[in-house]
Design goal:
By secondary structure, the protein is mainly alpha-helical. It has one domain. Helix content is about 50%, strand content about 5%. α2 runs antiparallel to α3. The structure holds zinc ion (2 copies). One zinc ion (ZN) binds next to loops. It catalyses: L-cysteinyl-[protein] + hexadecanoyl-CoA = S-hexadecanoyl-L-cysteinyl-[protein] + CoA. InterPro entries: Palmitoyltrfase_DHHC, PFA4/ZDH16/20/ERF2-like. It is an enzyme of class 2 (transferase). GO terms for molecular function: protein-cysteine S-palmitoyltransferase activity.
């Protein structure tokens, strides 16, 4: 018993150390990503884009993908996720105009408030305490490279992943002929007339292929969770609730789940904003202030979970 407690404590100490390293290394990773994305962008427009077919059509499309990737990355890193004790997200950047006839068609109800055991603040449902930021975040998803992903920047985070996958896929597919040249397959006499060096091109090509696969899987996982109306934390918690409910012969019902299509529409807020906001990099408000949530008809709370059975942040203590 004592032994297992010691092991547990050691593990927790290591975890805290990990948190501190993650917190301190955040700006370093942001900078590293900016450097790699810059080399990738320059390599694409220097080496690949001049040989693309239908340049009048393909080059503007490539520019649009690059602009989306960069702006959503910047906003995912800089737009505050929505702290429960913070101000609303500051009005900066280009905002999209709302549709004329706006309004979330789904019914929204006030979120239940509970007290955070770590910062003692009252917080609405779906908010969680981030150990690295040491604050409670509205609709907390996870702590990313330098800050949390939450209510106000989750859309930018997902859009960044999607555009990164499109950009790296375009790089890998259309940069293939230049890769053959770089590898010497076309014969050693073929020249390399580009500003980006051959070594950088090879490195970025390999990195693009790896990122396309890895981020592609991550993005698909996030989109699946979004279409089930779950954050990363909730998709774990709901797994536990489903087991508990099943053992009782009941069924767990996620009260935020309005159906795949409606869930995606609410996440990207296409209820209040036009569909072009998916391809034009603009900022927009989430459908809620994080203190009330759209619910399934007939549900005030999740089905199959009883009071006191809800998991709290203390469960990962
Ligand atoms: Zn807290
Ligand atoms: Zn955080």
């Amino acid at each position: 018993m004592i032994c297992s407690r010691t092991v547990f404590r050691c593990f927790k100490t290591l975890e805290r150390l990990g948190d501190r390293v993650t917190g301190a290394a955040g700006p370093f990773f942001v900078a590293l990503a900016i450097i790699l994305m810059s080399i990738g962008t320059v390599a694409f427009f220097d080496v690949i884009s001049p040989s693309l077919p239908f340049p009048l059509l393909t080059i503007p499309l490539c520019v649009l993908v690059a602009v989306n990737m960069w702006t959503h990355y910047w906003w995912a890193c800089t737009v505050p996720p929505g702290f429960i004790d913070g101000d609303a997200s500051p009005i900066r950047g280009l905002w999209a105009a709302k549709k004329n006839h706006v309004g979330v068609s789904a019914r929204t109800t006030r979120a239940v408030q509970t007290k955070c055991s770590k910062c003692s603040m009252m917080r609405p449902e779906r908010a969680h305490h981030c150990r690295i930021c040491n604050r409670c975040v509205l609709k907390y998803d996870h702590h990313w490279i330098n800050q949390c992903v939450g209510l106000h920047n989750e859309r930018h985070f997902v859009m960044f992943m999607a555009y990164l996958v499109i950009a790296t896929l375009a790089f890998v597919l259309s940069g293939y002929p230049q890769l053959l040249v770089a590898l010497g397959v076309m014969g050693m006499h073929v020249s390399w007339p580009y500003r980006v060096s051959l070594t950088f091109y090879l490195l970025i090509y390999i990195l693009s292929a790896v990122l396309c696969l890895a981020v592609g899987v991550m993005c698909a996982w996030h989109l699946a969770a979004i279409s089930a109306a779950e954050t990363s934390v909730e998709s774990q918690d709901h797994g536990v609730y489903k087991r508990v409910a099943r053992n009782r012969g009941e069924e767990f019902v996620n009260s935020y789940d309005l159906g795949r299509r409606e869930n995606l529409k609410l996440f990207f807020n296409l209820e209040e904003y036009p569909i072009y906001t998916l391809i034009v990099p603009l900022r927009l408000q989430p459908y809620t202030d994080g203190r009330s949530w759209a619910r399934k008809d007939g549900y005030e709370e999740h089905g199959g979970v009883r009071r006191g059975e809800e998991l709290t942040d203390d469960d990962d203590e």
